[in-house]
Every structure is written in C-alpha cells, then in structure tokens.
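Internal ticket #5521
Category: modeling
Description: The requester needs a full-assembly model to guide mutagenesis choices. All entity lines are attached below as received. Residue total reported by intake: 274.
Assigned to: D.W.
Attached entities:
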Amino acid sequence: MSESHDSAVEHLEIHECWDLLGANDFGRLAVATETGVDIFPMNYLVRDREIFLRSAPGSKLASITQRPSIAFEVDGRRFRRRWSIVVKGNIDRLGFDSEIVESGILELKSLNPTAKWNYLRISPESVTGRRFKASRR
Amino acid sequence: MSESHDSAVEHLEIHECWDLLGANDFGRLAVATETGVDIFPMNYLVRDREIFLRSAPGSKLASITQRPSIAFEVDGRRFRRRWSIVVKGNIDRLGFDSEIVESGILELKSLNPTAKWNYLRISPESVTGRRFKASRR
C-alpha cells in the first residue's frame, strides 16, 4: 500500500521494526493457497533477525510447503498511534531437533503441551514498518 | 489452521463473528500477488454482512483486480483471551458514487481528507472465528 502522499504515515527504520517485532509475540501469517490466500493468527519469537513460529498440524503446512513465499504482519497501538510491521520472505519447516532447540521457540508458552507442534522459520527478504493515526475506536 | 484437538480453542458462532467484526474497524487484508502474497493493515466498516474498505491508491489494487480472492483478519484481546475472525471471499472496487455513499464507508475517519481514496467491498464466502488463550504478554 503506497500511502507516501499521506503525511500522517510515518515510515519506521529497520532497527525500530526489529525492536517492535522482538517486543511482541503475536502476528498474522498470510500464505498463498490453491484458490487464493489464507491468513492465520500465530505466536512467534524473534532470534537473530529470523522469525520462528509454532503451529498445530493442519492444512496450512501443505500450503507452505508448496508455496514458501509468505507475508507476516504484526501490529500494535500506543496511545493514538498504531504501528504495523510487514515481513516478507520465505518460510520453511524446522526439520532437526537441534534447530528447534537453538531457535528458542520452545520458550513460547503452549496452549496444549501434548500437541504435536510444527516449528517454522521465516527468513525475511524485506521488513517494512509504518506508524499511523489510530482510527476512531 | 486446524486446532480442533486443542481444547483451549473455542470456535465462535457466526453471529458472534459478525458482532465482533461490527464492533471493530481495523483488520488485515491478505492478497495474492505475482510472486506470493502480501498483507495490508486497513480500516473497515461492516454493513449488511459485507465489509467495506478504503485504501489510498497503490500497488495493492492491481493485485486485487487480477486476483480477487482474498482473506481478511480482525482480532482483539479481552482479558486473557484473544479472539480472531477470518473472512474469506472476493473483493471488488466500488465503481459508482451511489454504491460508495450507500455503503457508509464515507463515515470512516480519514487520515488525509484530500487523498483520492479507493473504496473496496468484500463479499464473504466464509467467516470463521476462534477464541484462545492470549500469550504471555
């Protein structure tokens, strides 16, 4: 979305984007599907400028394996301003226990400790952030 | 995402989804692009179980015209529970002034009253909602 004509929109520096990503743990993963696109709310964790996600088994993973190019959005509100970070990149599944442990993703609290989780990694190709006036509510 | 095995996840009734959609005005639009997928934070308004969006001119619209199948996500948090609604459907651009006025979209506060806005409508094909335990923050 180009809103460069809108002076109320502030573009964030990359270090500020990573600070905000690191300070939060909930985002939305958008993936391409056979028929269009889907979007999933997910917990995440940042380590070394990569994003680690954990998901319960489901249809999402099939899409991700076939179409690894994804977008991930995290936003928040502070007083009357909202910020939003969009990460674009590729996602892959962590296949080795050592990768999973090293990522720190196991530190994310689990909704269901007995579930067989899938661990995913986003390797960012672009990270953009904006801050703008929050709406009326 | 199938989390039906997770007893902590509550699936919302359709009327509750629409109540939550109607009580909010900020969501994320996921669209397919030539190379993958993109996601845009946007204000919205609900009328007659359709969702109306307003966007500044930009690359997004080109994608939408070519690939009208989209997903739109709205979420929020109340105490220790987070809810998330995902709407899938088709998006089109409102071409007539009468459609724009009738939608009520002009009631959305503008960041920049002088911008030439584009008005979009999502015709939902599916609406699903979940409520789950919020993460540690």
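Resolution: model delivered.
Comment from assignee: Residues 14-22 of chain A form the longest helix (9 residues).
Ticket closed.
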